[in-house]
Amino acid sequence: MSTSTRRARERANTRERIIEAALHVLETEGVAALTIRRIATDVEYSAPVVYQHFANKDALVLELVAHGHRLLLSEFHHAAQEPDTDRRMTRIASQYVRFAGEHPHLFRVMNDPVVDADERRRVAEPVIDVLKELLTTWSAAHNVVLADLDQACEILWGTLYGIASLSYLGNVGGDRARYLAEQALRAILLGWRTETPANGRPASN
Amino acid sequence: MSTSTRRARERANTRERIIEAALHVLETEGVAALTIRRIATDVEYSAPVVYQHFANKDALVLELVAHGHRLLLSEFHHAAQEPDTDRRMTRIASQYVRFAGEHPHLFRVMNDPVVDADERRRVAEPVIDVLKELLTTWSAAHNVVLADLDQACEILWGTLYGIASLSYLGNVGGDRARYLAEQALRAILLGWRTETPANGRPASN
DNA sequence: TTAGGAAATCTAACAACGTTAGGAATGGAT
DNA sequence: ATCCATTCCTAACGTTGTTAGATTTCCTAA
């Protein structure tokens, strides 16, 4: 009995070590260096051992994607402590772009079509929920009635992703991208506020 | 003499056939099917022949990316014929997202980090120039003085790319993405207009 | 017309990849 | 001490991008 639990513990442990090794390779050397053999070497095993813990490479990468979203989520939670509703939004935007700049390779696999669309949406959900929550309190604070919260959130999410990609694809520098995200957010929010007259009629977005 | 020009013509011709075959494979079967051997087979040559026309696979893919941008540019030119300045902007936004939906695999390689960042920026330039031009006439028509045109353009470009990616990554449907892009554009432009008071003082974006 | 040489093309191979099969070692239970 | 399941490794398969070397094709020049 006790031996079987120990074995399970060891299994879970090496599984975790594989994920950590993969994450380290990805972050330090990029997606091209992320090979099964390389990971196996780093954890001092032969390549097939990896397949005892993950069905295939995509399943392992999915774990990295999930880790990335947890990381992003924690940074969002940190940024969400800002009391001012408006500054809170801009800080979220800035933080998202900063994340993309600080973890470019991770950011890449987090938005790579090779990982299944449903799985990707699933692991990204908590992050989007935070955005949705912040957007709700923001609209309440400004008496803005958004006709469709999901839609507004998707616009924000898409916009942030696009501008973050701008830097990650090398079109603009990281600092500028952060500034762009803040300005884009400001413009969008201002647009929504303007669409809602003082009497609080639902905006048509 | 005349034979050498004929040879050059034949060379250019097979080069073009390779590009067309590659484009066809990419659009119909996706990036995974785009292999050198497959392309060579389709043009009825052996694989090494491809390397007489392109230094490596990336150089060939870059040609597809350039083609994609030319295609996008022509659709932009078509959409830019809309006389109304505001509708022209929304049509551009809509058209961009539509392009991503109709050419998903092409859209993917057009924004793939495997192709060199400088080259990618270079082939995308004409498209961005159209966007910049449209943005200029729009701001003039509305007496909006944008402090930094490049920045405004980058925000637009990033936003459109982000929302197009939303559908291309499977987060939202194609029709909804097009609508989202229009709404995002509307909000941003409205935000910029609001930032510029009636007297035409430069907006702080 | 034919000998020579450049250009074009093919076959074969290399290294690296993801992945699987089959056997050897390990180690707790009877 | 024996058995059996788990763990692990070596070897291999098929595919990828890419290159070397041989072979064929075809124009040029004697």
TrEMBL record, chains A, B:
The keyword tRNA-binding does not apply. It comes from the Bacteria. Pfam families: TetR_C_33 (PF13305), TetR_N (PF00440). Residues 35-54 bind DNA. InterPro entries: Homeodomain-like_sf, HTH-type_TetR-like_transc_reg, HTH_TetR, MT1864/Rv1816-like_C, Tet_transcr_reg_TetR-rel_C_sf. Keywords: DNA-binding, Transcription, Transcription regulation. Residues 12-72 form the HTH tetR-type domain. PANTHER family: HTH-TYPE TRANSCRIPTIONAL REGULATOR BETI, HTH-TYPE TRANSCRIPTIONAL REGULATOR RUTR. This is TetR/AcrR family transcriptional regulator. It comes from Streptomyces tauricus. The lineage of its organism: Bacteria, Bacillati, Actinomycetota, Actinomycetes, Kitasatosporales.
